[in-house]
Design a protein that fits this description.
- The protein contains seven helices and five strands; from the N terminus they run ααααβββαββαα.
- It is α+β, with helices and mostly antiparallel strands.
- The strands form two sheets. A three-stranded antiparallel sheet has the order 1-2-3. The chain has a two-stranded antiparallel ribbon with strand order 4-5.
- β1 and β2 form a beta hairpin.
- The radius of gyration is 37 Å and the shape is elongated.
- The N and C termini lie far apart (94 Å).
C-alpha cells in the first residue's frame, strides 16, 4: 500500500531476516501464505528488505568457475536474419576508403591516406589535402613555416594555391596590430598585404637582432 506505513510483527521480521537470501518473488509468496498478509505487495516486501539491508547476496556477476547458460550452444539464426547479414567481402555503405575526402571545422579539405594513425593505430588516417599535395610537389614544409592559402579559398588544394610562410607572419596576416586581414582583402590587394607583412616581420627580426647584439657588447 503506497503512502501507508505497513506494520510488521517481530516474528514476521525475524522470519524474513532468516530467509533474506531467498529469491524475492518466492519469499513474497511464502510470506503472504504463511502469515496471510494480503496487504503486503511484492514492492512493499522488497522495499522493507532493502531498508533493513537484508540482501540476497547475489551481485548479478558471474562467480569464478560459473558458466553462462548458453555456453557451447549455437545461436539460432532465422532466414530473415541471414538475409540481412554481411556477406564475406561486403562492407557497410558508409565505409570510407583511401582517398575519401571531407572538410574539417576550419574549412580545410582532409583526405584519407594509407598511413598508420599514431593515435588509433588504424591503417589509414586523414591529413590536410593541400599540405599532402604540396609536399608531393615540393618536399617537406620548411621548419618554422606553414602553408598559406593564396587566393583565400581553402578548398582549392592545388599546390600552386599555397605558399610557405614563417609562422610569425600569421598574426599580421590575420589582421592583428592594425594590419589588413589577408583573407578579407580584395584579390588584387592580397599580394601587397603579404609583401607588407613580410617586410614588417623582417624589420622586426632585424631590430631584434640589433638589440641582442647590443646587449652582448
Amino acid at each position: 500500500m503506497k503512502g501507508v506505513c505497513i506494520p510488521y510483527s517481530a516474528i514476521e521480521l525475524a522470519w524474513l531476516k532468516e530467509r533474506a537470501t531467498t529469491k524475492r518473488t518466492e519469499l513474497h509468496a511464502e510470506f503472504c501464505a504463511t502469515f496471510r498478509r494480503e496487504d503486503v505487495s511484492f514492492e512493499n516486501l522488497r522495499a522493507l528488505m532493502k531498508r533493513k539491508g537484508w540482501n540476497t547476496g547475489r551481485t548479478g556477476c558471474f562467480e569464478k568457475g560459473q558458466h553462462s547458460w548458453n555456453k557451447g550452444k549455437s545461436l539460432p539464426v532465422s532466414d530473415a536474419f541471414k538475409a540481412r547479414q554481411f556477406k564475406k567481402g561486403h562492407q557497410p555503405h558508409n565505409q570510407n576508403h583511401i582517398g575519401h575526402e571531407r572538410i574539417n571545422r576550419e574549412g580545410y579539405v582532409e583526405i584519407s591516406v594509407a598511413e598508420r594513425n599514431p593515435w588509433t593505430n588504424a591503417e589509414r588516417r586523414y591529413i590536410a589535402k593541400h599540405k599532402w599535395l604540396w609536399e608531393k610537389a615540393h618536399g617537406p614544409v620548411p621548419d618554422g613555416h606553414c602553408l598559406k592559402c593564396v587566393d583565400g579559398d581553402k578548398t582549392n588544394t592545388a599546390p600552386s594555391n599555397w605558399t610557405p610562410i614563417p609562422r610569425a607572419l600569421l598574426p599580421r596576416l590575420n589582421g592583428r596590430w592594425g594590419n589588413l586581414s589577408y583573407d578579407d582583402a580584395e584579390p588584387e590587394l592580397k599580394p601587397y598585404v603579404l609583401a607588407a607583412a613580410k617586410l614588417q616581420n623582417a624589420a622586426r627580426n632585424a631590430q631584434k637582432n640589433l638589440s641582442q647584439n647590443g646587449r652582448k657588447k
